[in-house]
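Dear support,

I submitted the protein below through the web form. The confirmation email said the job was done, but the results page showed an empty box. After a refresh the structure appeared. I'm attaching both so you can tell me whether what I see now is the final result or a partial one.
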Amino acid sequence: MPSTSEIWTREQQRRLESALRDTRASGVPVRERWDRISRAVGRPPRECAERCRAIAAALRSRPPPPLLRLGLDELLLVLELLGGPDLCAFASSSKAHAASARHRSLWLALDRTLPPSLQYGTMERGGEEVWAYVLRVRRALHGAWQRLKLHQAGHNPYLADIGSVVGGSFTPTGGVLPYRLKYGAVAELVQLQVRRDGDRTTNAATYKAVAEFITRHSPDSRSFSAPIHMTVREIFKVCYPGFGSGVGSTGVAPGVRAGGSSTSGGARDRREIAER
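What the results page shows now:
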């Protein structure tokens, strides 16, 4: 059974590892370094040094994992089967894996999946490595696509970028809207207003309510000419062609029926009056 002096607690091991890292690049003499480590750990310098030698010997006696025994060519054959997210996960596991996962050939293959106008070789990239460029572009493209899918599912991603949506109500960050609003954000404001009104169709009152909200939270009232409800209407129709034209919609607005503008709304009102 080991003596009390040979037993290392988990806390002492943690202190030893931390002290080794902190004194690695200190530039002090070896004896002084071990004195510092000893004070940090709370054990004599000789025991700290022996502990490090024992750990190093145990690591050398064990063979590396099978994946690390492969040569670069064999490892690249395996990594070619992975996609971008898996390569990133593999690279984050160790420095050795990062060097292999960022190999030029792997990311040139992924580069060919980008649109021709965005591929790495179409223009000068200023020395940026292939993996960094492809990862940046793919992330940007995927992010835009993911945001569009969330928008189509009614999750208000464009408004989430500039504020918070709670209980069907939107609150801009700091109580002020950005100087430039994306069309997607305007469309989502219209959709929220439609839900609050309890009517699944848009009408003039819907656009006026959204215009009033934008005007009230605008950082500079001089940046537009009031009233802007017709601008809101046109933006919504650009996002969802066919709304308000009386012929149905060629777009899909979550939770909103097509043909709900003042034109179709007026026709509906006339039908209701006739039925009475």
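Response: this is the final, complete result; the empty box was a page-load delay. Residues 244-250, 259-276 have pLDDT under 50 and may be disordered.
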